[in-house]
dCMP deaminase, putative (Bodo saltans), 179 residues
Amino acid sequence: MSVGPCDVCGHPFNAEHMEAAFQAAHAALREGEVAVGCVLVHTATSKVVSFGFNHTNRDKHSLSHAEFVAVEALQERLSPAVLSSLEDYELYVTVEPCMMCAAMLALNRIGHVFYGCSNPRFGGNGGVLSVHDNVYCSCGGRESDRAVKLLQNFYEQENEAAPDHKRRRKDEETTDPAP
């Protein structure tokens, strides 16, 4: 587990904030959502000001990723004059932001991102594309194994919201095909 400052820019890492992101991810898992959680932290005060976890199954909305939920919650509390960008904030998230979330964070000029495991399928912070380049610094590999285990826990259970042809049913016996 990497607990030191950011390998890229030296920005300090706070393990308590990452722990809060994992607590949000556990909440997602309990609600039958993909186990991704995050917290937004005001950099100057080191205070968690917002959190989010995936709500895509509940909301039936593709924008209900943890990062969008956290940013929207903060935007609802602060006026546009106060919150013109996220440059004074940092994000701790259990999984590398997808390309869509990385683009949203870049457009809102987030100050810094720390994430748990990489996202080799949809990652926007270098996993697939580097959407964040020249906008914000991103540092991954923070409790990567723990983040992967949470995702595995989600995918081992039946996702009632998945389309039938993609749903993995608990009652179906899985067998290896004969040679």
Summary: The mean pLDDT is 87. Residues 50 and 71 are 7 Å apart (CA to CA). The helical segments are 15-30, 56-59, 66-77, 99-107, 144-156.
